[in-house]
């Protein structure tokens, strides 16, 4: 299975709060975790504990914040154009 790469949006404030903003084509995908890559430039999101085949990247400044967090808020839309939010917990390094 080939790995996809996708640049997605993120926002942070001076307090170090971070939100990841994206759209998922799978209406059943609800992120519950994230895995950082070894080089720390990208991350994978998980749903129901399963990592999907897309490596995500965000701005370098926000990536530095993500590396320090135990969990991050993910705000996303699904194909039905509904807005959702979920907390994703750090799960370790991506393999």
Task: Write a structural description.
The protein has 95 residues and is mostly beta strands. It has one helix and nine strands; from the N terminus they run E-E-E-E-E-E-E-H-E-E. It has a seven-stranded mixed sheet, with helices on one face. Keywords: Plasmid.
Inertia-based shape: globular
Q: Which residues form runs of ≥5 with pLDDT under 50?
A: none
In the CATH scheme, the class would be Mainly Beta
CATH topology: the name is: Immunoglobulin-like
Quote the distance from N terminus to C terminus.
Answer: 14 Å
Gyration radius, rounded: 12 Å
Structural class: mainly beta
Identify the notable features of this structure and list them briefly:
single chain; 95 residues; mainly beta; Immunoglobulin-like; 1 helix; plasmid
């Amino acid at each position: 299975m080939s790995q996809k790469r996708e640049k997605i949006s993120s926002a942070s404030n001076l307090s170090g709060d971070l939100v990841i903003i994206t759209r998922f084509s799978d209406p059943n995908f609800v992120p519950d975790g994230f895995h950082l890559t070894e080089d720390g430039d990208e991350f994978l999101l998980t749903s129901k504990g399963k990592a999907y085949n897309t490596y995500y990247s965000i701005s370098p400044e926000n990536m530095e914040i993500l590396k320090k967090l135990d969990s991050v808020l993910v705000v996303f839309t699904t194909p039905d154009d509904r807005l959702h939010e979920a907390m994703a917990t750090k799960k370790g390094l991506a393999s």
